[in-house]
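Ex. 9. Protein: TIGR03086 family protein.
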Amino acid sequence: MNDMSRTIDLAVTAIRGADPARFTDPTPCPDFTVAALIDHMASGMLLAENSARRVVRPWDPGSSPVLGGVAHEEWAKACAAQAAATAAAWDDPGAWEGEAHMAETPMPAAMIGSLMTAEFALHAWDLAVATGQRLDVPDDLGQVVLDGVGPVAQMGRDGGWYGPEVPLDEGASAWERALSASGRDPRRT
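Predicted structure tokens for TIGR03086 family protein:
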């Protein structure tokens, strides 16, 4: 199982654990309720699948291509199906090679894979925190996420999709440092 599949599994676990009764609750992402975050995660999975399969499509950030019209009680099932398709697409070693597109933006495929691997883990944490779940991230996967976040952290802060880096004590794990670099406080529960 590749690292993206592992972070997709984290995301699906958090989505399955999110009670639809909490869909209007806030999340650590100031722009997202629980429902909006799950929709964003599902849409990101489709975007990542398209990248791996070299599908170039315009992207409407206000659309809901995976969960639009799906009853909240069925969201976990719909997300799991999309997650399986995304994981299968990135399981092909060729998906990581050459150039691909993030919607219509050309980028190195490996960069897209790294960004989305980190994205799925970070948003799994956001959702887990918002819905009172525990998210267990193995040390080696925490390092993979940190490796994905580190090179883009300043660009993320400049672009507004990461918050200011959160100071941590010495000895913080790679996962905690990844959260911190992306503007998330790993001590938040």
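Check your answer against this statement. Residues 109-130 form the longest helix (22 residues).
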